[in-house]
Write a structure and sequence with these properties.
Largest interface: A-B, 37 and 38 residues
Number of strands of chain A: 11
Distance between the termini of chain A: 62 Å
Number of domains of chain A: 2
Oligomer: homodimer
Largest sheet of chain A: 5 strands, antiparallel
CATH architecture of the largest domain in chain A: Sandwich
Strand order of the largest sheet of chain A: 1-2-9-4-7
Structural class of chain A: alpha+beta
Shape of chain A: elongated
Order of helices and strands of chain A: HEEEEEEEEEHHHHHEEH
Number of helices of chain A: 7
CATH superfamily of the largest domain in chain A: Jelly Rolls
DNA sequence: CGAGGGGTTGACGCCGATCAAAGCTGGTGG
DNA sequence: CCACCAGCTTTGATCGGCGTCAACCCCTCG
């Protein structure tokens, strides 16, 4: 009996997920057991004791999302947030003429959708996976429940928000002004720092995404990236993996902007 | 005895303030009695009961700062935050070539300096008053003390951070891309919405500040603003107070960006 | 009265947007 | 297996917007 309840629950989670994902499929990895999560100490719930998760009412699910999957849409309110374990998620905003602007790029350890805690406005952006993304989907009610029992969670949430804010400011300063080549240099350097790779190797984004990030045209991005490649400031070290000349890029980036 | 302690305390507050204010003077209005503050319900401490302030260890002071006063500097850590009651404060970032970029513009009800709660990194920006600014200076220790006794304060802080974040995103989307005239139009509209004035009348910023906000040159800003004035999209209604043609500016702003 | 700071305007050149077309790659179906 | 196509990247040509340098105006303040 219990078994059936759990099963239908699982299935409804999956189909709901599949419906929301407009592009591709999501692979459900199972109900999460946070208490024994290997990387919990790095994530949103790092401060909580293991016992905190014993009796949460709404379950946390663990997914792997294919590239290009929409996790949520601006204005929507699925009552869930996502904690990213692996991969990249872009937060975007569509202007009414169809122009897309990428506002933030989030990787491992980040949480997205926290703006729902604020009340009735819904998600502030559309969130789309860039890579294959490994993430936990946490019901908002669960966050609120945990917070009411463990007020220290609030500090963790605050730090996550502060982190978003710092990234947004960096975005404005480094990617929002100055000549195109400086912005691209900044972008590559930022990606390198964000990268999980010890060498700082990065997976180049599509030109369209890069254009939407730094706010210039696709052609210009392509020209500059191609130029970097020709000058060996950027070269392939593996399939979908590029290494860059940090010194040189920093010199370009520093030319006129921070 | 107690009286003298308080007095010297006051004086040290004042001189410290005067030292930090590199441009102009700050007028000290006195120690604050939050419990009876007329506008507390609108501010950071809105959720707290009146009794919460009975025995805070470090005092909250109330100042009026002259235009151009530096409240704090990037990287510094004065262990205080400011709650803005009236006026405008700009948060800026200097690039190493001397370029300034204004990252946020904050008015009544906003709190600045909350990033100190996060730990050891200090202020993330330099904060400078634009107008005459009426603000309360709250020691960080007081915030932490109040929060430990009233965990619900954390939600209020979270909302303030979320608000900053929303503003930053808006900044990126509306002011960080698109042709110069669209950005200026957006800027004026944003100012109008921020304005306390019921008609949405605004005090025009200096051209240099506007340039640092939208990331274009002073001359271009001047040209565009002058053009707006010539076309009566923008006209003076009083000393230092301008009204704008909302429809027309929105049309310009919508041309290609949000 | 002169000096200085902020705003406006003009002239010129370059960066980057736009339009257009040609490689390149992977997928699909014959 | 190859032909073909679609999508992405690269490259070229052209043109307009905006940065830059410079002069001038206006106002305030010493």
């Amino acid at each position: 009996m219990q078994f059936f309840a759990k099963l239908t629950d699982k299935l409804s989670s999956m189909t709901k997920e599949l419906r929301r994902s407009n592009c591709t499929n999501a692979e459900w990895l199972g109900r999460v057991d946070c208490a024994h999560c290997q990387i919990r100490k790095l994530m949103l719930f790092s401060d909580l004791p293991e016992t905190a998760f014993d009796d949460v009412l709404q379950p946390i699910d663990h997914f792997i999302f294919a590239p290009g999957t929409t996790l949520y849409e601006i204005g929507g309110d699925d009552r869930v947030i996502y904690s990213i374990r692996q991969g990249l998620v872009k937060l975007l905003h569509y202007s009414d003429d169809g122009t897309r602007r990428i506002v933030r790029m989030l990787g491992p350890r980040a949480s997205i959708g926290l703006e729902l805690l604020d009340g009735l406005e819904g998600y502030r952006h559309t969130a789309v996976t860039v890579n294959k993304v490994d993430a936990c989907r946490i019901p908002l009610a669960t966050v609120e429940e945990l917070q009411s029992r463990h007020p220290e969670l609030c500090n963790q949430i605050r730090q996550h928000l502060q982190n978003h804010l710092d990234r947004a400011d960096e975005w404005i300063i480094a990617l929002g002004a100055g000549p195109a080549r400086e912005r691209i240099a900044h972008l590559l350097l930022m990606q390198g720092e964000l990268s999980a790779d010890p060498n700082g190797d990065i997976a180049l984004l599509g030109r369209e995404d890069m254009a939407a990030i730094v706010g210039i045209s696709v052609e210009t991005v392509s020209r500059i990236v191609a130029e970097f490649k020709r000058g060996h400031l950027l070269y392939k070290v593996a399939e979908d993996l590029y290494r860059y000349d940090r010194e040189a890029l920093q010199a370009i980036a520093r030319a006129a902007a921070d």
